[in-house]
């Protein structure tokens, strides 16, 4: 009997080959344990509100009013909502054609795209054109749309950092392209060495792969490093010479926990380099409302900005975006608010600053607590989380533990993370889900648990780890 299209054996192989560890085996087991009544600390996903982060007040007030515009006609509205929130809600509603229940243009509301362009211009000091900004349902959708335009088939390669956030590996698999890895140097604070890039490209080419684009994640996920300006310049020069499109994933640009290397956008560095390179390199930059001190993951708001992309290509990307009709309109308003928050003198300014600073300062302290906690554990070493939302310690698994994992039919880091989960309820993602060098093991955890819970979590991690290491002997597996 012939198979039907959605019988498992007849599914698109690209779908079956695609792996997404952030919601993989560990997550599924954690969900099961939770159903059985065990307390689980979900540190597998960078989902701040799920771990208790409170939403910023002002943007929620504005969007609440946009969702329920009849409140604006209530004579008591001013008793619940500050005047600047009311004014902003009216402003955003005036940018829509029928409120939040109406589709917008598939590139997003022109008025919000203009606000995004103004934000980029303020941030970078260079003009930004709203026509080259598309609003998306989270950064993920934008990344998928762009990779879809780039990848023509199996012979097309995309340079992706290893370790990487698996949106990239998964989407490249889904689209039937080839991932070309370049390794970040753990011993250099997860720095990016352009010589590694050259080697990766040469090797891919020798296998008949056409390398078409390069992904950078800055600040890094899962690795947490912030790229220096000099490094970004090298990368842009490399992309120019190799004729690669640069996909700059900058979703963690607000999440910076050190002062030596503040965030600097790829667009600014490119423009600073001047002609001819500033007119040559094709760059797509991504941003989101899911991260930073906003953490509004569930709203699904994002944008991408295109630099040096020919108008006919922009038209094609517009067409692709149009198939999905319209990004979420409420999320577009969150994006508008993120790029134009309350200003000094506004009624809500002080509260907004207090809330956002409070979150960022606490994240900075948590980044430090986690790194120090991991580094106090037996056979664990961890680079400081300079930015983003994750800690990515290396776990030096003793040979006996590797043996035990093999016997259990598990990848060694999956084995370790499962044991950690069962013992402590801490739900992490094994390093193999992000890619790592052969024979080296990691785990990723977010730095998002509530600050007051952090000492207890790190104590319980340390106890588990040190017992585990004693149980399996103290040998080192690192080659
Ligand atoms: N890019 C990077 C580097 C990310 O880490 C994420 C989300 C995204 C893009 C997509 O975000 P949005 O689609 O929500 O805008 N990070 C995932 C992670 O590693 N944990 O949680 C989600």
UniProtKB/TrEMBL annotation:
Keywords: Aminotransferase, Pyridoxal phosphate, Transferase. InterPro entries: ALAT1/2-like, Aminotransferase_I/II_large, PyrdxlP-dep_Trfase, PyrdxlP-dep_Trfase_major, PyrdxlP-dep_Trfase_small. Signal peptide: none annotated. Gene3D superfamilies: 1.10.287.1970, Aspartate Aminotransferase, domain 1, Type I PLP-dependent aspartate aminotransferase-like (Major domain). The keyword Transferase applies. Pathway: Photosynthesis; C4 acid pathway. Its cofactor is pyridoxal 5'-phosphate. CDD domains: AAT_like. Residues 85-459 form the Aminotransferase class I/classII large domain. The keyword Iron does not apply. Homodimer. Belongs to the class-I pyridoxal-phosphate-dependent aminotransferase family. Alanine aminotransferase subfamily. This is Glutamate--glyoxylate aminotransferase 2-like. It comes from Camelina sativa.
């Amino acid at each position: 009997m012939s198979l039907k299209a959605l019988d498992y054996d007849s599914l698109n192989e690209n779908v079956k080959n695609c792996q997404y560890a952030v919601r993989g085996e560990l997550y599924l087991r954690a969900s099961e344990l939770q159903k059985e009544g065990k307390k689980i600390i979900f540190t597998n996903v960078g989902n701040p509100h799920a771990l208790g982060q409170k939403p910023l007040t002002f943007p929620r007030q504005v969007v609440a009013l946009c969702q329920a515009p009849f409140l604006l006609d209530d004579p008591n509205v001013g008793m619940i909502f500050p005047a600047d929130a009311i004014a902003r809600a009216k402003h955003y509603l005036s940018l829509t054609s029928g409120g939040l229940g109406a589709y917008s243009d598939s590139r997003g509301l022109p008025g919000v795209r203009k606000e995004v362009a103004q934000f980029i211009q303020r941030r970078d000091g260079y003009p930004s054109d709203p026509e080259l900004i598309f609003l998306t349902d989270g950064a993920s959708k934008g990344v998928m749309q762009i990779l879809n335009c780039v990848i023509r088939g199996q012979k097309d390669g995309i340079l992706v950092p290893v370790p990487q956030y698996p949106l990239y590996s998964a989407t490249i698999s889904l689209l039937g392209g080839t991932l070309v890895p370049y390794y970040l140097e753990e011993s250099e604070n997860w720095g990016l060495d352009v010589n590694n890039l050259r080697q990766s490209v040469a090797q891919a080419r020798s296998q008949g792969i056409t390398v078409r684009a390069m992904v950078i994640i800055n600040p890094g996920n899962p690795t947490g490093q912030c790229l220096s300006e000099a490094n970004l310049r090298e990368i842009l020069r490399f992309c120019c010479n190799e004729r690669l499109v640069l996909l700059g994933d900058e979703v963690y640009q607000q999440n910076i926990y050190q002062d030596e290397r503040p965030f600097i956008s790829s667009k600014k560095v490119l423009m600073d380099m001047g002609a001819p390179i500033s007119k040559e390199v094709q760059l797509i930059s991504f941003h989101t409302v899911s991260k930073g001190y906003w953490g509004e993951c569930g709203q699904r708001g994002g944008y991408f900005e295109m630099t040096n992309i020919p108008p006919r290509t922009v038209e094609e990307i517009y067409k692709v975006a149009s198939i999905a009709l319209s990004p979420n309109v409420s999320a577009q308003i969150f994006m508008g608010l993120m790029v134009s928050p309350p200003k000094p003198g506004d009624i809500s300014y002080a509260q907004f600053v207090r809330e956002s600073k409070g979150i960022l300062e606490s994240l900075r302290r948590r980044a430090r607590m986690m790194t120090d906690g991991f580094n106090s554990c037996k056979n664990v070493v961890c680079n400081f989380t300079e930015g983003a939302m994750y800690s990515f310690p290396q776990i030096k698994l003793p040979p006996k533990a590797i043996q035990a994992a093999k016997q259990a039919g598990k990848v060694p880091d999956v084995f370790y993370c499962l044991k950690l989960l069962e013992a402590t309820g801490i739900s992490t993602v094994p390093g193999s889900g992000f890619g790592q060098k052969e024979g080296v093991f990691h785990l990723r955890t977010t730095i998002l648990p509530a600050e007051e819970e952090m000492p207890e979590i790190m104590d319980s991690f340390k106890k588990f780890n040190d017992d585990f290491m004693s149980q399996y002997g103290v040998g080192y597996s690192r080659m």
